[in-house]
Amino acid sequence: MKYPKYNKGQGTIEFALMLPILVLVVFGVLELGRAFFAFIAITNAAREGTRVFTFRPDVTTIANINTAVYTEIGNTPLVNTANIAGIEIRCRNDYSVVTTDTQLQACPAEQPIRVTVSYNHELIFRLIFPQSITLRRSAEMMIP
């Protein structure tokens, strides 16, 4: 079967029209995977910060909790510790914010402690999405 002369470039034109959409889909899947990976990493970091306090609540300081969070994220590839936007510590049933070591030592036993990690996830497509996405995860454990 012979094709008319005007149909010879049809496949090339269709491919040229679909290529940007395919590229967006592929990079979108990669970006979603990177964001999910970072989400899991900051979840683990928040859990590690909380766990450090529950092992030795009598001697643990805010610096110990921050170090545990930074160490856990630092051990994870593709996640940059420089993008940590903040680490927040709360304790008691009213979840009052802890900002000093004295307040941390005053957290009563049999009450929850919560560590929240905020992370600015930078996107691959900065031309289309110039702002980063803030990911935030918390972990909560009971103080022994």
Describe the structure.
- The chain has one domain (7-142).
- The chain is built from three helices and four strands; from the N terminus they run H-H-E-E-H-E-E.
- It has helices spanning 10-55, 62-74, 101-105, and strands at 84-91, 96-98, 112-121, 133-142.
- The relative contact order is 0.17.
- The mean pLDDT is 91.
Give me the strand/helix succession.
Answer: HHEEHEE
Domain count: the total is 1
Tally of helical runs: 3
Alpha carbon gyration radius: 24 Å
Give the number of DSSP strands. Answer: 4
The percentage of residues in β strands lies in: 15-25%
Strand order of the largest sheet: 2-1-3-4
Structural class assignment: alpha+beta
Mean pLDDT: 91
| Helical content class | 40-55%
Distance between the termini: 81 Å
Low-confidence stretches: none
Secondary-structure map:
Layout lengths: L9 H46 L6 H13 L9 E8 L4 E3 L2 H5 L6 E10 L11 E10 L2
Antiparallel strand pairs: 1-2, 1-3, 3-4
In a nutshell, what does this entry contain?
By secondary structure, this protein is of the alpha+beta class. The protein has helices at residues 10-55, 62-74, 101-105, and strands spanning 84-91, 96-98, 112-121, 133-142.
Main features:
144 residues; four-stranded antiparallel sheet; rod-shaped; 22% strand; alpha+beta
